[in-house]
Design goal:
Strands 12-11-15-14-13-16-17 form a 7-stranded antiparallel sheet, with helices on both faces. The protein has a 5-stranded antiparallel sheet with strand order 24-25-30-27-28, with helices on one face. By secondary structure, the protein is α+β, with helices and mostly antiparallel strands. It is built from 11 helices and 30 strands.
């Protein structure tokens, strides 16, 4: 006899102009559009946290038929139960005696209440308190919850075990946000290259935890959240999301758009009373009886490969003012009362002297960022439901305190150092690190750095802070989240009006990517930690009116005491991947001819620097290529007697055989058949190569040491 069929009818609905469809129930005999719409909107709001003012489209109709085949018996069960023995086990937070059942002695319908253990030849089933196991007729075990689990025995006092648990819980929130963003984004840059970051912040805008995304994003996002607090303060309310990319109000450069979502203790309530952040831990005002209290923020930052500007891809090589770099989001209300402000945001993207060439993709990625934030909110709310708000907020403080102490331990073993880092343009980043051993603090002083530049290689102050945070976090030999606690023992001196603290309306698009790498290299040199690695992100953008694309190319990493550099790897302030060749060639009119290791480009030394790479892209349509690259004139430094890495090189091979050499920062128009060739720098070596005799007593010292120091 055939088993009965269970037939399910579904309609796959989506908003007009979007890509993601949601299946809803469909009655084939009496379809109910209102019920289908209600189910779609409920699921959409639950998944993405907002609704849209668009028509609904039925993309597909599906019919699924299921038949339940009989389950094969998986065990021979006895007719009578055997008596259990007892063993000592640590369950439910304490050691106790629990029954030990032999699986082969449990008959059908046997009921085993937890805590207990069921053992068999190839498996052990641990049944926690509040659960029970039942033996089914085919011999399978079914676990049933029999009680509500007690709240974990966690208090607000710092506990080493709970600290490790919360370190990972907070990081997991950001990781799950990233997974949601990757799954729902539309652009190649976010979906394939993973050029995004997600993080969790406390109510004062202090970074609590992040996923291992992009360091240049993560260390600077706190300034963005705090800017939202400063500008909006008491007007923040549930159901809002704010977008920012303004480098002079918490952003870094215009392509990096951050979506910030505030979360309250009652998201159904009216506007909150929130005091602007003042730099202290308790920057949240006293909410009234009927007003929700601000609990935390979640934020996601994505690099939009097209946001306007002089050239397609929004990374112009020769911009001199911010207006030439694209569309500005300054404290932009993206979601209000749970409604995605699509029409208003599209109008903004089409405004200004250099509008976005692809507003549809901008909007799709912004929706994905809102959805990622919604996932973060759900995960933190689940954490609060499990542990209690008081415990979660206490551990938001404890993880920062722990990171602070970890950095202080690093400072305990550091010495003073300084370095003068020259860039390809002739600008200098000068840094002096001074350690106060008694206070267990360090001062990072950038006095003497070149003044604000006429080019776009100025880096907003938040980017410099991100570089300092990254460097000192990498010196911590412990698995802790990157958070604001790392900055507490560090005093950053940044004079006004330098290339690291520009004033509006200076251009900054290259500073976020190139100067951030240079600051990192200057700090590692001053501290004598390792040779220079990439020192550049090797930014390549190309496009036309229909297509825009951006990528960063790997170089060789620097060597250090006891380790060689790595060939062709993303280093320091960048951590994105490259688009798969198949996806690149499917989505864009290009052909990736090759991507190879540039053998021998790493600096020689006792420990050798990593080799750079060679990438060749052939164009199938007329395009404009923009390059922002470094170490084309000044080689990546070696350390302690190691040799510098090889210089990078950019060129275009024309279809007629002409070879056009390009500068480190350059723009060029290409025709069908032309090939862009980028040779990325090698990393510096560390220590003299075996058999090398180097003249001069100071040749082998590390850059962070002065003459005569030990």
């Amino acid at each position: 006899m055939r088993p009965p069929l269970h037939v399910t009818h579904s309609a796959h609905l989506r908003y007009a102009g979007t890509d993601t469809a949601i299946p809803v129930s469909l009655d084939p005999d009496h379809p109910d559009p209102a019920a289908m719409t209600a189910e779609f909107e409920a699921t959409h709001r639950r998944t993405y946290s907002f609704l849209m003012d668009r028509d609904h489209v039925v993309e597909a109709v599906s019919v699924e038929a299921r038949a339940h085949a009989p389950h094969p018996a998986i065990a021979v069960v006895p007719e009578e139960a055997g008596a259990p023995t007892t063993v000592t086990a640590h369950l439910g937070g304490r050691t106790r005696e629990v029954p030990l059942h032999r699986r082969k002695r449990l008959p059908v319908s046997a009921h085993v209440e937890g805590p207990a253990i069921i053992a068999e030849d190839n498996a052990t089933t641990v049944i926690e308190e509040g659960w029970a196991a039942v033996v089914l007729p085919d011999g399978a075990l079914r676990l049933d919850r029999t009680g509500t689990p007690a709240r974990p025995n966690a208090t607000t006092a710092a506990d080493p075990v709970m600290l490790e648990i919360f370190n990972n819980l907070f990081m997991s929130v950001a990781e799950q946000m990233g997974a949601r963003l990757e799954a729902t984004a539309q652009s190649v840059n976010i979906k394939e290259r993973l050029d995004f970051s997600c993080a969790l912040f406390d109510a004062a805008g202090h970074l609590i935890a992040n996923a291992p995304h992009m360091p240049v994003h993560l260390g600077s996002m706190g300034a963005t959240v705090q800017e939202v607090l400063r500008q909006r303060g008491a007007t923040l309310r549930p159901g809002q999301a704010i977008a920012i990319n303004d480098p002079y109000h918490g952003g870094t450069h215009l392509p990096d758009v951050t979506v910030v979502t505030p979360v309250f203790d009652d998201d159904a309530a009216s506007p909150a009373a929130v005091a602007p952040a003042s730099g202290g831990r308790g920057s949240v005002g006293d909410a009234g009886a009927d007003e929700p209290r601000l609990l935390f923020f979640v934020a996601s930052r994505g690099h939009h490969a097209e946001i306007g500007g002089l050239t397609p891809g929004s990374m112009p090589a020769f911009s001199t003012t911010l207006a030439e770099e694209g569309v500005l989001f300054d404290d932009w209300l993206l979601v209000e009362d749970g409604r995605f402000r699509e029409a208003e945001t599209e109008a903004l993207l089409r405004s200004g002297p250099h509008t976005s060439r692809d507003p549809a993709t901008n909007l799709a990625d912004l929706r994905a960022q809102v959805a990622a934030n919604a996932k973060g909110v759900d995960e933190v709310r689940a954490m609060i439901a499990h542990f209690g708000l008081d415990v979660v907020q206490a551990y938001m403080r404890h993880v920062q305190d722990n990171a602070e102490e970890a950095v202080r331990r690093v400072i305990d073993r550091l010495g003073d150092g300084q370095y003068d880092y020259e860039t390809d343009t002739g600008a200098h980043i000068r840094v002096r690190v001074t350690v106060d051993r008694e206070a267990r603090t360090a001062t990072i002083d950038f006095t003497g750095t070149s003044p604000q530049l006429a080019t776009n290689l100025n880096a907003p102050a938040a980017v410099t802070t991100a570089a300092v945070l990254y460097v000192f976090r990498t010196l911590v030999d412990a698995n802790i989240p990157l958070n604001d606690g790392c900055l507490r023992p560090l005093h950053i001196v940044l004079p006004e009006g330098t290339m690291l603290s520009p004033e509006y309306p200076a251009a900054v698009v290259g500073g976020n990517v190139e100067t951030s790498q240079a600051v990192t290299g200057a700090l590692y040199a001053a501290l004598g930690v390792m040779a220079e690695g990439a020192g550049t992100m090797n930014n390549v953008t190309f496009g036309n009116a229909r297509h825009q694309y951006y990528e960063t190319l790997s170089s060789g990493s620097g060597a250090g005491p006891g380790f060689d550099g790595t060939a062709v790897v993303q280093t320091h302030m960048t951590n994105s991947r490259l688009t798969d060749p198949e996806v690149l060639e499917w989505r864009l009119p290009v052909l990736l001819e090759s991507y190879a290791i540039r053998r021998g480009s790493g600096g020689a030394g006792r420990w050798r620097g990593g080799d750079g790479g060679v990438r060749r892209i052939r164009f199938r349509e007329p395009m404009t290529v923009s390059l922002l690259t470094g170490h084309r004139r000044v080689p990546p430094y070696g350390m302690a007697g190691g040799e510098p890495g090889a210089l990078g090189r950019n060129l275009v091979e024309r279809v007629d055989g002409e070879v056009v050499e390009l500068a480190g920062n350059d723009v060029v128009d290409v025709a069908p058949g032309d090939v862009l060739v980028v040779e990325t720098p090698g990393g510096g070596g560390f220590g003299p190569a075996p058999g090398t005799v180097r003249p001069g007593s100071g040749a082998g010292r590390r850059p962070g040491k002065s003459e005569g120091e030990a």
